[in-house]
Amino acid sequence: MISVLSRWEYEDLEETRMDRAKGFLADNCRKGKRGICVTVVVLGIFIGCALLGYTAFASTSHRNATLAQVTIIFRHGYRTPTETYPNDPYLHYKWPDGWGALTKKGMLQMYNLGKWIRDVYGWLIGKSYNSSTSHVQSSYADRCIMSAQALLAGLFPPDPEETFLPGLPWLPVPVHSTPRELDKTIVVKAPCPRLDEALKEAYQNDTKQTDLQSYYAELSNYTGKKISDITDVEFLYNTLEIEDLNKLTLPEWTQKFYNDKMKEIAARSLAIFTSNTLQQRLRGGPLLKEILEHMMETRTKDNWRKLYLYSAHDITLVNVLRTMGFTNELFKPDYGAALIFELHLVNGGQSHEVKYTDNGTASNEYSRM
């Protein structure tokens, strides 16, 4: 099921408005239930400073005929654990393809998401890959690059005459990636002292607001690993979740801890990276700026790209959604979750629709949140 987070429209932007946006402008969103916002801020960061704000208006129904561009940010598919803990009964378990790898289930999940994108948007982007029509950007992580490749196999299946090897219904499609230490948009791991200091402060504030010391102590005792903050809990939750999904019997102590409370703490760990305005500007802002620039191509170019794909992580989705003000709730995106930006050209202006599907099992049924 896809949730429609918001729709908004705006008229042609004057140059003076674009210039004024180079200051730090942030309209406040009224946050209630996820996706129910009276005001929506679309953020584009000019690194370190600038935000662009637009005001949302009432919902408008759109026909396919008005759709001009689609941007999709998706989390990679099901994976193996990235780490474990000393007392893990599966400490020496042989995970297929190693640690942090995309699984066969994850490959199929992403392949099916690609097929769905083809079913819904194929008429816009064409049945075959074309670099002037589509662009794919990925996180540095192998599981993200492979997720993009699996998705593209479902999105662009070749006709028999296009294949280069009889019986192989696949064609290579380029997936672009940025080294981890240079990434300022997807994983945001490029060195930034301001972000480091802001995160340190956010952890300190979280510690003051919640007393989890006894909780951490119990987990440390059971796992044999020092658990000292919410991110340690998140990593442990991720490991337990994957073992559970793979039908591995969890230790008895997990009956007390592997529950909604642990998942909520894990979600807090994701949210802490955008817990203040500076973090939102520098973590969610650069990617939103890039998306907005792509949308503006429809005003400056006769032929613009119709599809932009970003193969990313759960933190990427959380960063973007929280920066836009769509949610103030704690949530943890599932594997294969996707955030969809539709750009429509309506009456000489632009209209936008943002949709979210949580686990890669997209359908043609849309629901509002």
From TrEMBL:
InterPro entries linked to this entry: Acid_Pase_AS (IPR033379), His_Pase_clade-2 (IPR000560), His_PPase_superfam (IPR029033), Histidine_acid_phosphatase (IPR050645)
Catalytic activity: a phosphate monoester + H2O = an alcohol + phosphate
Pfam families listed in its UniProt record: His_Phos_2
SUPFAM superfamilies assigned to the protein according to its UniProt record, in alphabetical order: Phosphoglycerate mutase-like (SSF53254)
GO molecular function: acid phosphatase activity
PROSITE patterns: HIS_ACID_PHOSPHAT_1 (PS00616)
Record's signal peptide: none
UniProt keyword terms in alphabetical order: Membrane, Transmembrane, Transmembrane helix
Transmembrane segments: 36-57
Superkingdom in the source lineage: Eukaryota
Family: Belongs to the histidine acid phosphatase family.
Protein name: Prostatic acid phosphatase isoform X3
Encoding gene per record: LOC107264394
